[in-house]
């Protein structure tokens, strides 16, 4: 291991090059894994990870070693050129374990897109929003708010889950909740009431499962995007809730679609059963309205489902940190996303300690742990095939557009 710089990475001091190397040997190969850093100052901070594997049984006859693979340093790996190219709309969903830096990475990507000429919308579907904190701007209120600073328009939206759930509650209750139950009881159509029980709507609304808020949030975004005035956005970045919510979110549109489908079928049955006396009910028009709303909600759920699986327009970026626990969770997330046919190509390993010449005991231990976690990623069948983007731990709090631009310029290359 060779190092020539200071211990603490800083945005204000200049650190020079360093290189650390670990050698691993097994029955037929020798692997060298190391971190490599070139410089760190206020304008540029770069850290890289190289891995080099030499297969013993692939040695050429003249006995010189053959280099099998050398990963490029992180400067080249994010593939931002591909992410930014084209003017057709693209969706990026950033997700992972709680606290790993999803919001910081999502917000920095949104700033980078906007500064690269894309009118961009960044949306938080995490019920515990932190976009406002990240941009250091009040983005609450459930409406699109312009973010000041970037070259091209950047808007942010924090979905208010309570409001979205309330809207959902009002349309479902008009169609499948107490309104219809009372109505059917009054009409002597009690046998249909049984079918309502199956929908478990009361349960769904009173104790919403993790993922419901997200599904409603995304459906809300789709509703926004359907309108003409939001046609301008060519990049949409989602800052999603922690892993568990995301996984349930994937199956939720199917569940909601089925539930709403049942409500609508039930509504049809009631309509035909009562056709003879339908005119008696003055509120017919209102129920028709609610039925339309419900049908639109259902259509949006179908779109949410399709959106998650559209390889041409959507990508789920997993964010993790170099700890065994976070890596294991990321591996499970990746497996679930792949199983659900959600496109995943990139993995951000955030908060990596940049190399230093004078590691204190704490930093040395931390570095060792991080190297072990990187090792696990390299050997993980779910994660090793993803493009790894390395993001260093920086010594400033990432808050506000300038800080997000700084992070974005390091991460998204
Ligand atoms: N590369 C980094 N260097 C230094 N600090 C970072 C880095 N990435 C994130 N942070 C800090 O870590 C904290 C958590 O980051 P962030 O809010 O982006 O995580 P999150 O995954 O969105 O969290 P949550 O799951 O709670 O929404 C913030 O204070 C952020 O500034």
UniProtKB/TrEMBL annotation:
Residues 280-307 form a coiled coil. Residues 90-410 form the ArsA/GET3 Anion-transporting ATPase-like domain. GO terms for cellular component: GET complex. It catalyses: ATP + H2O = ADP + phosphate + H(+). InterPro entries: ArsA/GET3_ATPase-like, ATPase_ArsA/GET3, P-loop_NTPase. Gene3D superfamilies: P-loop containing nucleotide triphosphate hydrolases (3.40.50.300). The keyword Transit peptide applies. Keywords: ATP-binding, Coiled coil, Hydrolase, Nucleotide-binding, Transit peptide. One of its GO terms (molecular function) is ATP binding. It holds the Pfam family ArsA_ATPase. It comes from the Eukaryota. GO terms for biological process: tail-anchored membrane protein insertion into ER membrane. Belongs to the arsA ATPase family. PANTHER family: ARSENICAL PUMP-DRIVING ATPASE ARSENITE-TRANSLOCATING ATPASE, ATPASE GET3B. This is ArsA/GET3 Anion-transporting ATPase-like domain-containing protein.
């Amino acid at each position: 291991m060779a190092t020539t710089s200071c211990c603490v990475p800083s945005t204000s001091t200049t650190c020079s090059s360093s290189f650390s190397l670990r050698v691993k040997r097994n029955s037929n190969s020798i692997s060298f894994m190391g971190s490599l850093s070139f410089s760190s100052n206020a304008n540029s901070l770069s850290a890289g990870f190289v891995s080099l594997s030499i297969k013993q049984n692939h040695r050429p006859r003249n006995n010189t070693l053959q280099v099998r693979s050398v990963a490029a340093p992180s400067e080249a790996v994010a593939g931002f050129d591909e992410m930014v190219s084209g003017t057709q709309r693209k969706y990026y969903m950033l997700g992972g374990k709680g606290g790993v830096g999803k919001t910081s990475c999502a917000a920095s990507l949104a700033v980078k897109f906007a500064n690269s000429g894309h009118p961009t919308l960044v949306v938080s579907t995490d019920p515990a929003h932190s976009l406002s904190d990240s941009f250091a701007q009040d983005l609450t209120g459930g409406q699109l708010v312009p973010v000041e600073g970037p070259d091209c328009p950047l808007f942010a939206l924090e979905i208010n889950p309570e409001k979205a759930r309330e809207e959902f509650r009002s349309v479902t209750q008009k169609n499948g909740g107490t309104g219809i139950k009372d109505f059917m009881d009054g009409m002597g159509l009690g046998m249909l009431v049984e079918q309502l029980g199956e929908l478990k709507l009361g349960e769904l609304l009173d104790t919403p499962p993790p993922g419901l808020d997200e599904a409603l949030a995304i459906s809300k975004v789709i509703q926004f995007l359907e309108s003409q005035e939001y046609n301008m956005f060519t990049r949409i970045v989602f800052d999603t809730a922690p892993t568990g919510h995301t996984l349930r979110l994937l199956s939720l549109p199917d569940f909601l679609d089925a539930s709403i489908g049942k409500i609508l079928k039930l509504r049809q049955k009631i309509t035909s059963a009562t056709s003879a006396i339908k005119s008696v009910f003055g509120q017919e028009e209102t129920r028709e309205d609610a039925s339309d709303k419900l049908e639109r909600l259902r259509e949006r759920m179908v779109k949410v489902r399709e959106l998650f699986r559209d390889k041409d327009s959507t990508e789920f970026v997993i964010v993790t940190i170099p700890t065994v626990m976070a890596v294991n969770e990321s591996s499970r997330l990746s497996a679930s996303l792949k199983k659900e046919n959600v496109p995943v190509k990139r993995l951000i390993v955030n908060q990596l300690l940049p190399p230093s010449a004078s590691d204190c005991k704490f930093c040395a231990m931390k570095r060792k742990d991080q190297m072990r976690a990187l090792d696990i990623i390299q050997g993980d069948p779910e994660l090793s095939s993803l493009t790894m983007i390395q993001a260093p731990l920086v010594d400033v709090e990432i808050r506000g557009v300038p800080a997000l631009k700084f992070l974005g310029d390091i991460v998204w290359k």
